[in-house]
Amino acid sequence: MQTYLHVLDSYFSVILFGPLVTAYWRGTWEIADVYLFPDNSNLSFGVSTAAGVLVYLCFNFSQDHFTSLNYKMSSPMFCISSRLHAYILGHAMVNYWRGIMGFMDKINKTYLYMGLETILSTILLAVLKGSINAISAPLLTIPDTGPHGRKDYFQISTKLKTKSTESWSFFLDCCYSVLIISGLVIVQWHGVWGLIDLMIVPQDQFKSAWLSLVIGYAMTMVLLIVQWPVMAFAKKARNETFKCYSIILLLIEIFMSFCGTTASAFVWRGFWNLQDQLLLPNNLELSVWISHGIGTICLMIMFHFNTAIQAGLDSDGDIIFSDEQTFFDIKFICNIIRYSGNMVCYST
Q1: Is the pTM of this model over 0.90?
Q2: Is the distance from CB of 265 to CB of 193 less than 8 angstroms?
């Protein structure tokens, strides 16, 4: 029965979070397009990149300071500060991506250029064991709280999991996580998105958006089915410990991560372009605020705003060598039930 509930929850979450996360990103991204030096793209992208990186790094560096303040806050004060923290960090993440992708868009999109972007970034992420961090909604959900409630709310996991007490190591780990791993994820997404732009009916944006959405969700459904035998095989391989099993399992995780990233990019592109064309296309300013508002409010009410931020990082191997039944961590109802007593804005 628990397995059936998990499956139903996964499909429900996939349908729910795909459009909401995309709405948040599209709205936040294009708000910057509208207000942040719209007549000077180089300055606009430069400010986006600098502000995004600076805030993202500062929130990494100061996570223990925020946590220490957390213990002194009343529940109402924590409710306000945690939402404000998430909102600012969300803007930083979106602007970081917007700035880097904006500069990369200045180079003409060709199959060769986009292909090289995708291949090189994918290889580097695999070598650095960071491929898993490119997966996004609808194949990922992250609750705003966990088993420890609000105690670890402000914690942002770095790639190497260095302790903050190791000052210089922690500083370098934060820089490595933000500038290298997250930067490569941005490049990979730009390459995949660019290839989709070139391949999927480029002469008809409306049809291209719908087709992108259909392909993305078709890939998502296939991956949701395939993940079960993949994890069962991984468990069996670990138990039998045959030669080179660890390398094989790691390669499987990298492949599954890339497939999940591609499926996510298809879904995002479909929802994003459909909003551009159908949601008040003659009033861009109001359109982007509606997208931003719906995404922000709904995700915060559902205590899953972290799904849109994805500030923390993991390493390849964390999933395939775990005892999880599924590869993709997609839960909403299960998270609400499991952490109902620890939800943000409640008791410590």
Answers
A1: yes
A2: yes
